[in-house]
Fold this sequence. Notes:
It is built from 25 helices and twelve strands. The protein is an alpha+beta fold. It has three domains: 148 residues, no CATH class; 212 residues; 154 residues, Roll (Nuclear Transport Factor 2, Chain: A), CATH 3.10.450. Strands 6, 7, 8, 9, 10, 11 and 12 form a seven-stranded antiparallel sheet that branches. It has a three-stranded antiparallel sheet with strand order 4-3-5, with no helix packed on it. A hairpin with a 2-residue loop joins strand 9 and strand 10. The radius of gyration is 33 Å and the shape is elongated. The termini are far apart.
Amino acid sequence: MESVRVPLDYYRVLGLTPGVAPEQVQQAYRDRVASLPRREFSDRAIESRRALLDAALTVLANPQQRQLYEQQLASDRLGIGATVEVDDGDLPGALLMLYEVGAYEGAIALWRTLKTREGLAPSLEAVTKDGDAILAVVLSALELARDRQQQGFSHEASLVLEEASNLLAEAGLFAGVRAELQTELYRLRPDRILELLAPGGDRQQGIQLFREVLDARRGIDGTGIDGSSLSTVDFLRFVQRLRQYLTVAEQQAIFEEEARRPSPVASYLAVYALIARGFAQRQPSLIRRAKGLLVKLSARQDVYLEQAVCALLLGQTEEATRALEKSGDSQQLAYIRQHSEGDPDLLPGLCLYSEGWLAEDVFPHFQDLRGQPISLQEYFAEEQVQAYLEELPNTTTAAGAWVVAEEPPVPPAMPRAVDVRLSSYEPEPIRPLQRKTAPAAVKDGPAPRPPARRKRPVETVTPPVEINAPRRSRRPTSAQQRGRWFLVTLMALAVAGIVVAVRSLFGGAPPERPSLPTALLTPLWTELGRSAAGQGVTARANEPLQQGDATRVIQNWQEVKARALGPNHEAEALATVLLEPLLSEWRSRALDLKANQQYIAYTTQPIEVIDFAAEGSEGATVTVRIQESREFFQGGAADPNQSQPQADYRVRYRLTRSEDLWRIADMTVLDN
């Protein structure tokens, strides 16, 4: 028989700390004996666990033995920590005890030591194949992974889970527990992908995991189940976050492939990747591919502004003008007309709009393009761009062939009608420009390209067109609004038969939103209007919800909603606290606050539980008293008319088990 020292002390075995009264030792022992482990553990493991509890009681219930034991603990000058010597036959019970007291890393480290030790005694080698020992180690890994995930280390958590899952697969044991591990792995995948794509992570692994998620969901807008519990809207938000970490080439490869499913949403994202890469790398052929995708999307969505930009970048000015005429985005069209200063084809305003759109709404969403300067002048000055545009069939002269208008006095070195193509366009105030006579309209259908382009005579236009718009008034939308309405557009593309008349992918302004109502001050709004980044409360398998855990859930909810409606609008953790339809309602309200540059500063007090009623092992109904103050801010300034310094009301919550967490399924404000 072999013995092993296990990193435990008798106080921890009973869940106590040194200095407790003798009667507390007896009570703790009775509670621990009465609390049985998971049903998968064998009677032999439970007996070994009981032997440890009996040994702890024997020492701590005897004053003399307890005093000597505490002296031994105090004399640990080397910092090795307390240990308990356990025979090999009782080792599975000791591993179970490590799991129960939360010493997850200790259980895993002991197991790895046994697995890797050379010349291990046969009795100890048998422990490494024992079902109870394996189960204790796997459950420790599961809880350790949850701890790591809550600390923000999703990739590390996933590695722990994968190791534990492989251990069960090799042993061929506990299929149900292995399913739990797989559920956790699926739930962690979105955060793990973002972590892998962040600087220092394994990018290729992150992209591969993202592709696996897309396959499981059968596309970005598919109906498959990937195990992440993300709804379609939540998954679109995840994709938006993901794009910040991907290069333009990576996004093009992923979304063009996804567009073939077919997927309208992926097609839409592929358009932006193709335009961005085509412009940045001076490859108009990519912009032409984007234009082809937009033609297909136009059947279900107003994408004529994007089509106009593509036509402009391909030198197809008449086609760009026709696309603008079809667009239903009145706000952006008004901006383009304003900055075209009367030019009938709207090209000056479209040029200015295109530069702003690329700089503010397209490039920032690619890791390798963020912050790069945008210049139509430099784009059209590239020889490879000019050569490609010259070869395009049915195209008009690039940008309508701008010429410098006559402006006395004319410098001697400057002729009166210098041919200046779009390559010389500048968004800053320059000399007034005149357009050449408009070329003939492009006929429908393919037509042979003429062997040479003929320059057309200059037609005098009075007054001359001035491109004199300052950059600061480039486009009339905020980044927050564009982000919100991008998601609306993706949802419109994701649902067949729905056409939403809003500018897409940050491309334009949504209808003006009204300010939040005064009803914000009511408890009902307060209980239906925040989102945040809190941590969930774990629901142990087959164990009913206790009042203490229920209190933690609701207290956590108060913190979550305070951060959700606060200045940073942290809505990510709503899913750890709420279930649908509350989840969507809270997200919507948080986004409205953010879009309107509003937030609420909360000061809360500890909640008071008035009533608690368990509902079997699946949930409970809890009535609590909430006391808080709310200070409403608009544009950074406090608004006393919308604030409430003292709120005191009762709320009844219905809590239920969902994916190993206790979540709020319903809430009702009882009074104010």
